[in-house]
C-alpha cells in the first residue's frame, strides 16, 4: 500500500528535477534485498558512484525527497 502512495510522489519529483528514479521490485530482483539490506517498503536510496548516500524507509514527502536529490545534482 505504501509503495502505491509513494509512486505519484516519486514521479512528481522526477518531473520537477528532470531526473530518472528507477523503480525496482525486490521480489523480482531478490539480490537487491541482501545487497541493500531492504526491510521496509518502500525504500528509496540515492546512490552516487554505486554507493548509497541517502536512504529513506517508508513514504517520503516530495519536499524531503527533492531536497535530498538536489544535494547530489
Describe the secondary-structure layout.
Elements: H1 2-17, H2 31-35, E1 43-48, E2 51-57, H3 62-70
Helix pairs in contact: 1-3
What this model shows, in words?
The protein is of the alpha+beta class and 73 residues long. It has a single domain (2-70), classed as Glutaredoxin, CATH 3.40.30.10. Helix content is 41%, strand content 18%. A hairpin with a 2-residue loop joins strand 1 (43-48) and strand 2 (51-57). Helix 1 packs across helix 3 (62-70). The chain is globular and about 30 Å long. 5% of the residues are buried.
Q: Would you summarize the structure shown here?
A:
This protein is an alpha+beta fold and 73 residues long. The protein is 41% helix and 18% strand.
Largest sheet: 2 strands, antiparallel
* C-alpha-based Rg, rounded: 12 Å
The CATH superfamily appears as Glutaredoxin
Average pLDDT metric: 95
Structural class: alpha+beta
Highest-level CATH class: Alpha Beta
CATH architecture: 3-Layer(aba) Sandwich
Q: Give the strand order, joined by hyphens, for the main sheet.
A: 1-2
- Stated plainly, the CATH topology is called Glutaredoxin
Note the total helix count: 3
Helix content: 40-55%
Shape: globular
How many strands in all? 2
List the keywords.
73 residues, 3 helices, 2 strands, Glutaredoxin, single chain, alpha+beta
Amino acid at each position: 500500500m505504501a509503495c502505491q502512495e509513494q509512486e505519484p510522489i516519486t514521479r512528481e519529483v522526477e518531473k520537477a528535477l528532470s531526473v530518472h528514479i528507477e523503480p525496482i521490485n525486490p521480489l523480482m530482483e531478490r539480490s537487491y534485498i541482501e545487497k541493500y539490506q531492504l526491510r521496509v517498503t518502500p525504500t528509496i536510496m540515492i546512490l552516487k558512484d554505486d554507493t548509497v548516500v541517502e536512504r529513506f524507509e517508508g513514504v517520503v514527502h516530495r519536499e524531503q525527497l527533492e531536497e535530498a536529490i538536489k544535494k547530489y545534482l
